[in-house]
Write a structure and sequence with these properties.
heterodimer; A: mainly beta; 6-stranded mixed β-sheet; 4-stranded antiparallel β-sheet; globular; B: mainly beta; 0% helix
Chain lengths: 113, 116
């Protein structure tokens, strides 16, 4: 079945540091790929998405590129802020699975001033 | 506009009791999903509704779990004879066009269920 593997945290960075959170997936067909974010005390929010190979999703300074050859969708940001502290989830959805989201286990990011 | 709403926000119950969790999707969204977020299992799909089609129940963990969606809008997730392992945050999400892969699923704030 479909699965998502993302790097385990927690990840602790200083403000303005570079961030990469690795995500790889296993799926049949051509899934859509997502990064969701959960800020402390808040619900899940879509951060960015990509629906086909080589697409780049971007939002709030975060980027991720859909790499079919390596089945990856790594999340990157060049300069993190304290307000980026949250749990980040990589996810995929596929037509053959009624587009339900299959999530990775989440990565807790803490950014210190 | 209004987002996905869920009630109650918190529910504490005793083992063996039944509970009902409610989800109000975004108006006009035809697809509705239930997920569960727990420390041990992460985020798991439970059930999917799309219009008048038969629901996809493949994620329900046992026959104690059931859900319905009335009038293509509000959904209720029912857990019978609750067990301690049912303790989790139950999340509802909706999306607009047939739950297509390009359509964003919008999540509600969740219901935190604690089974004592």
């Amino acid at each position: 079945g479909d699965s998502v593997t993302q790097m385990e945290g927690p990840v602790t960075l200083s403000e303005e540091a570079c961030l990469t959170i690795n995500c790889t997936y296993t799926a049949t067909g051509y899934p859509s790929l997502f990064w969701y974010v959960q800020y402390p005390g808040e619900g899940l929010q879509l951060l960015l998405k990509a629906t086909k190979a080589d697409d780049k999703g971007s939002n709030k300074g975060f980027e991720a590129t859909y790499r079919k050859e390596t089945t990856s969708f790594h999340l990157e940001k060049g300069s993190v802020q304290v307000s980026d502290s949250a749990v980040y989830f990589c996810a995929l959805s596929a037509q053959g699975s009624n587009y339900k989201l299959t999530f990775g286990k989440g990565t807790l990011l803490t950014v210190n001033p | 506009g209004a987002g996905v709403s869920q009630s109650p926000s918190n529910k504490v119950t005793e083992k063996g009791k039944d509970v009902e969790l409610r989800c109000d999707p975004i108006s006009g969204h035809t697809a509705l999903y239930w997920y569960r977020q727990s420390l041990g299992q992460g985020l798991e799909f439970l059930i999917y509704f799309q219009g008048n089609s038969a629901p996809d129940k493949s994620g329900l963990p046992s026959d104690r779990f059931s859900a319905e969606r009335t009038g293509g809008s509000v959904s209720t997730l029912t857990i019978q004879r609750t067990q301690q392992e049912d303790s989790a945050v139950y999340l509802c999400a909706s999306s607009s066009i047939a739950g297509g892969g390009t359509d964003t699923q919008y999540f509600g704030p969740g219901t935190r269920l604690t089974v004592l």
